[in-house]
Known about the structure:
Keywords: Glycoprotein, Membrane, Transmembrane, Transmembrane helix. This protein has about 250 residues and is mainly alpha-helical. Helix content is about 70%, strand content about 0%.
Amino acid sequence: xxxxxxxxxxxxxxxxxxxxxxxxxxxxxxxxxxxxxxxxxxxxxxxxxxxxxxxxxxxxxxxxxxxxxxxxxxxxxxxxxxxxxxxxxxxxxxxxxxxxxxxxxxxxxxxxxxxxxxxxxxxxxxxxxxxxxxxxxxxxxxxxxxxxxxxxxxxxxxxxxxxxxxxxxxxxxxxxxxxxxxxxxxxxxxxxxxxxxxxxxxxxxxxxxxxxxxxxxxxxxxxxxxxxxxxxxxxxxxxxxxxxxxx
Length: 247
């Protein structure tokens, strides 16, 4: 009976570690995508130290889970007490680190508010100056998502004009409607947009547009994180039980 129980626990341990292995691979893939993505999100992450750090933490956590899932599978199948103990200690450290990261994310959540992004936009945005990373990134985001500023075109009332600007317009060119939402897309009516004709401008703020676009994925990511923590907890329990059961 004890042998059957140990065998069952060994395969359950293998199964949980296989899921950890897959979870680590997913986190590793997302972390790499955020850091090397060429569509503009890399610059957004780089412009915010908190997001920049978070992307590398995700990358590191993904790599560690990937490795530990592999080690846990090997330790379970081979019934190696040394590997199982090593696995348990590192899973425990990762579990505590993830809990700490979640607490820090909750404490510093005000850095991702509408007011924070509005303040940063008014402070650093240089309109059509594409040599500036911050401005170029914001222009790419506004063109891609067909939005304007954080809250709307009114965000740019306090933003100074470039000295060589030909049209004294509050609304930047990136907020003008295009036939195709890319930098190569033709303007619907650029002159009318820059002179203040609202029907040729994107009036909705990017904060709302992006939040609505990624709302489903945010909940999915949260559910995935809870699932990973639960799997890690069960994996630690099975690892210790299997460790005690091996003669």
